[in-house]
Specification:
Blueprint lengths: L1 E8 L2 E8 L7 E7 L13 H12 L3 E5 L11 H7 L2 H16 L4 E11 L1 H12 L5 E5 L26 E6 L7 H14 L3 E6 L17 H19 L1
Parallel strand pairs: 3-4, 3-5, 5-6, 6-7, 7-8
Antiparallel strand pairs: 1-2, 2-4
Helix pairs in contact: 3-4
């Protein structure tokens, strides 16, 4: 089942798309941070994110997808949103989505994780840095983790010591954002912070290798392997 709730973050309404599995629960929950598709105007037009949410729900998770670009008009150019993107705003968005998910009667509030792809992969990392109640974090080819986004905010990689959950990562070895060297730095930061983590890297796969709407980027074998691993990971960590 899918429905849309609206929450207010700093006086700005934010849509949150909720997906529920069959059965009464209580179920584990997942906050899914969306990526940035071409021509992006909202979650309702983001086929990949919607299908990903449905796939998690079919596997027994209640999924919340917050529209983290609500700070700008939907018709605003994506380049403006990229340039003006702020980690402090996004942390508030993710907390609001978490709180909404945690108060659903069909959700076990003690079993909630976070996942994201591409831009959402970085956002997933950021969410884990700001919410110690998250029990698991999955990062799919998130770039810009080493860069600051927004005024007076540190690069997300420097917040690794705040992460309270284990982390799993999925990366293509042909990717340049993040590059294999970037991924090495991600792992080193987590190791230094004492964060349990495991990274999976795929030869022949580039950026957005799970993005099935893009024939150029999609790498089926790597994508399906990663789907199997991330589902097993969340079922292990969230129960």
């Amino acid at each position: 089942m899918q429905r849309i709730e609206t929450v207010t973050v700093n006086d700005s309404p934010m849509e949150v798309f909720l997906f529920e599995p069959e059965g009464e629960g209580p179920h584990p929950g997942i906050v899914l941070a969306q990526h940035i598709p071409v021509g992006h105007t909202g979650v309702e037009n983001d086929t990949f994110t919607l299908k990903s949410a449905e796939r998690f729900a079919e596997n027994g998770f209640v999924v919340a997808v917050p529209f983290i670009f609500h700070w700008w008009p939907k018709e605003e150019e994506m380049e403006v949103k990229r340039t003006e993107f702020r980690d402090d705003w996004t942390a508030l968005d993710l907390q609001a989505a978490f709180d909404l998910l945690a108060t659903q009667g069909c959700v076990d509030a003690d079993r909630i994780g976070i996942v994201g792809h591409c831009w959402g992969g970085r956002v997933s990392w950021l969410g884990a840095c700001h919410n110690p109640k998250l029990k698991a974090c999955a990062v799919f080819y998130g770039g810009r983790v080493k860069l600051p986004m927004g005024p007076s905010t540190p690069p997300a990689i420097e917040l690794a010591g705040n992460i309270n959950s284990p982390v799993i990562g999925f990366f293509g070895n042909e990717d340049q954002n993040p590059s294999p060297e970037d991924v090495d730095d991600y792992s080193a930061a987590l190791t230094e912070a004492g964060v349990e983590h495991v990274f999976h890297r795929y030869d022949g796969a580039g950026h957005a290798f799970q993005n099935f709407p893009s024939e150029e980027k999609y790498h089926h074998v790597s994508s399906e392997d990663a789907w199997g691993k991330v589902m097993a990971y969340f079922k292990e960590k969230l129960g």
